Q: What sequence folds into this?
């Protein structure tokens, strides 16, 4: 009957909403555990999370992962910034002055450096491209993890001494995806993070 189908459909919708709500609650609980584990809410100071994703497809699994992380951090009470490098038009090409240690002048790079320096948690999401991050993500790393922003040298220049870190990040998470079968990935290519 029509009323039976409507009632059945109504129960299906309620179950779907319940499952979605349960998944969201699990996600938020998981994010809260991460926050507690690293002591990332100290007194009234709320930690900042920076989620950076690189994938050209706006419907990609990578972007879905990044959005889920961003939302989880927010649900856990963190201030979270989601940086989708492709959609924001980030230029990954390092300039000659930047390669020689001169601070960036590109407003997008300057903004990314500011977000990185404020981040207590850094999450990076990208596909595995030939055993490495894609060019867009590598370019972001080259330009944002820059001298004077992420690290410096004791004598203000590279004179052969070890650099020191300037970031206050307490936790980092790297999620990379691959379309290669797990067994082949591990036996033939290995974990690309082992080479970094």
A:
């Amino acid at each position: 009957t029509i009323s039976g189908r409507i009632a059945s459909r109504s129960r299906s919708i309620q179950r779907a909403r319940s499952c979605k709500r349960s998944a969201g609650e699990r996600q938020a609980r998981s994010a809260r555990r991460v926050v507690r584990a690293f002591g990332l809410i100290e007194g009234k100071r709320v930690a900042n999370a920076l989620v950076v994703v690189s994938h050209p497809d706006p419907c990609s699994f990578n972007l879905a992962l990044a959005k889920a992380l961003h939302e989880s951090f927010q649900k856990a009470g963190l201030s979270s910034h989601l940086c989708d490098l492709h959609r924001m038009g980030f230029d990954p090409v390092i300039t000659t002055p930047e390669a020689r240690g001169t601070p960036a002048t590109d407003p997008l790079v300057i903004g990314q450096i500011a977000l990185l320096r404020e981040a207590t948690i850094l999450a990076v999401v990208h596909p595995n491209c030939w055993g490495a991050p894609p060019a867009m993500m590598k370019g972001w790393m080259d330009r944002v993890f820059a001298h004077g922003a992420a690290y410096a040298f004791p004598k203000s220049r590279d004179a052969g001494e070890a650099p020191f870190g300037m970031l206050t990040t307490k936790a980092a998470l790297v999620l990379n995806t691959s379309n290669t079968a797990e067994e082949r990935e591990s036996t033939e290519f290995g974990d690309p993070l082992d080479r970094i």
Notes: The beta strands are 41-42, 45-46, 48-53, 79-84, 121-127, 151-152, 164-165, 171-177.
